[in-house]
Write a structure and sequence with these properties.
CATH class: Alpha Beta
Order of helices and strands: HEHEHEEHH
Largest sheet: 4 strands, mixed
Strand content: 15-25%
Number of strands: 4
Number of domains: 1
Distance between the termini: 25 Å
């Protein structure tokens, strides 16, 4: 059974018409420890099937510790949004439902374009930092 409705699929195809470069969605799950994470895997696979510039890669959180460490995955379910040959550090944890689904779609578009959409003033402020900073955004379903 598909998680994406026909209406959502049509909207995604319109949104993904703006993809500039390939995007790889790497989903980390573990069916035995967290059966709900398999729903995230299915969603990511359905999402990736909506455009030729998108691809999905499924990884087991326990059985693939090298990939987990390489991408800095901390928990499951997790989605790493990777650009073509570049990792911008975009990670989403949990099931992207409601507004969080929109955030995933926007992250895909931003990574494909290779830019965040931040104002020049904000980018200049970030470039002035003398050490790496990890930004975490928390949200709850409404």
């Amino acid at each position: 059974m598909s998680l994406l409705t026909d209406e959502v699929t049509a909207e995604l195809r319109d949104a993904f018409a703006g993809l500039a470069n390939p995007v790889r969605l790497v989903v980390f799950s573990q069916a035995l420890a967290d059966p709900a994470s398999e729903e995230v895997r299915q969603l990511v696979e359905e999402l990736a099937s909506q455009h030729e510039q998108l691809s999905a890669e499924s990884r087991n959180f326990v059985l693939d510790p090298e990939r987990v460490a390489e991408l800095g995955i901390e928990r499951i379910p997790a989605i790493a949004v990777l650009g073509e040959g570049v990792d911008y550090g975009v990670r989403l944890y949990g099931m992207p439902k409601g507004y969080e689904f929109g955030s995933l779609v926007e992250a895909i578009l931003d990574v494909s374009r290779g830019r965040s959409g931040l104002a020049a003033e904000t980018r200049a402020g970030l470039e002035a930092l003398d050490k790496d900073v990890r930004l975490r955004v928390f949200s709850t379903p409404t």
